[in-house]
Specification:
Radius of gyration: 25 Å
Number of helices: 6
Strand order of the largest sheet: 5-2-3-4-17-16-15-9-13
Shape: elongated
Number of strands: 25
Distance between the termini: 63 Å
Mean pLDDT: 89
Strand content: 35-45%
Oligomer: single chain
Low-confidence stretches: 371-375
């Protein structure tokens, strides 16, 4: 007896499961994804045995009593599903062979290892007092903006994830790599979790984003021991928290600002990109100068040349100059609609600059001490 499933739904599940699989592992079983046939769904599972595990439930058409396990090679299964010219597929298992058939095709995949040898997928079950529920669309939008601020340096392991700080019915997301930082506050639909701090690895965040397909619905986040679990749209993702001490990010915000300047995200991005044409990895600094009625962005390279772009603004204060890594400014602004209004908050000694966006989102960028200095 076979299981009939949507090709698109199964492909989505396999791609999510594959994103967890380690690229290099001596264990043959970890090259595959585990398929578990149940009465009314096909469960797709994977794990990296270290930091994360995932389970995706794919609905089937009708019920079946033919329960089985299969462990096909993940990349081959992905390829079969990607190229299959069918809306639905029938899956069945005979011995160590998985059959995928449609009206005009049949593919047989062998188990890459004994399904019984597949390691347990850790999916922690949080206690009721350690869970929160949040709107899926709002969480997805926030995480897409904030995950790029994570560090990719293994030496700064504590910064290689997004910090989830929960208190008083509010979830605060934080990410930083030392050069820039983003913070956003989100109101939870339900928040019964105890006050605590969790740092979720970037890999798990990106998998979660892939699992959240639309703005409708809710995400349940559970905290248990060293694991955090996300449940959304038929997907359960469990990730081990990033270890290490996270910096006290609130101390980074300046206590007093000498300049508060309203700006348009689209206009600021436009002049930044124009000036960035004349920057390189070595000379990546863009000088921004405020003067009466205008903001000027300048950049130069000893070989390529120089650029100067002016933006008319409503400013009548004293002249002020500050140098930023143009790539960071562009990446920060590109996450927002061009019509977005923001406030740039500067301090006299240019120790740090704060950018306040709508939706309780704040970005902080550490200026360069001089052009080309990557401090």
């Amino acid at each position: 007896m076979s299981y009939t499933v949507s090709r698109e739904s199964l492909l989505r599940a396999v791609k999510l499961a594959t994103s967890i699989i380690p690229r290099h592992s001596p264990k043959t079983a970890l090259k595959g994804v585990l398929l578990k046939a149940e009465r009314d769904c096909l469960v797709v599972k994977s794990t990296d045995m270290e930091t994360a595990g995932i389970e995706v439930r794919v609905p089937t058409e009708g019920e079946s009593r033919d329960w089985w396990y299969a462990l096909p090679d993940a990349s081959r299964l992905d390829g079969v599903l990607t190229e299959a010219n069918a809306t639905t597929l029938n899956l069945s298992k005979e011995n160590d062979s998985l059959f995928l058939t449609s009206d005009f095709s049949e593919t047989v995949l062998q188990d890459c290892d004994n399904p019984d040898a597949y390691p347990s997928v850790v999916l922690s079950e949080a206690k009721a007092e350690d869970t929160l529920i949040i709107n899926a669309g709002k969480l997805a939008t926030s995480l897409k903006r904030i995950v790029q601020y994570c560090s990719n340096e293994s030496a700064r392991y504590a910064l290689t994830g997004v910090k989830f700080e929960r208190a008083d019915g509010k979830l605060t997301l934080v990410a930083t790599d030392g050069k820039w930082m983003a913070v956003q506050d989100l109101v939870c639909v339900t928040c019964t979790a105890s006050d605590a701090v969790t740092v979720v690895p970037e890999k798990a965040i990106r998998t979660l984003l892939a699992a959240m397909r639309g703005e409708e619905g809710e995400v349940t986040i559970g905290f248990a021991g060293n694991y955090v679990t996300f449940t959304v749209d038929g997907v359960t993702l469990s990730a081990r928290m990033v270890e290490g001490r996270y910096p006290t990010y609130r101390e980074v915000f300046p206590k007093k600002h000498s300049i508060k300047l309203p700006l348009n995200a689209g206009s600021l991005l436009a002049i930044t990109r124009q000036a960035a044409v004349m920057t390189t990895q070595e000379t990546k600094g863009i000088d921004y100068t405020l003067d009466t009625g205008k903001l000027t962005a300048k950049s130069s390279d000893p070989v390529a040349g120089r650029a100067k772009v002016e933006l008319p603004i409503a400013y009548d204060g004293k002249a002020h100059s500050i140098t930023f890594d143009g790539n960071l400014v562009a990446k920060m602004l590109a996450q927002w609609d061009g019509s977005t209004e923001l406030e740039a908050c500067l301090v006299e000694k240019n120790i740090v600059a704060e950018f306040r966006f709508p939706e309780s989102f704040t970005a902080v960028i550490v200026p360069l001490s001089k052009k080309g200095d990557g401090k």
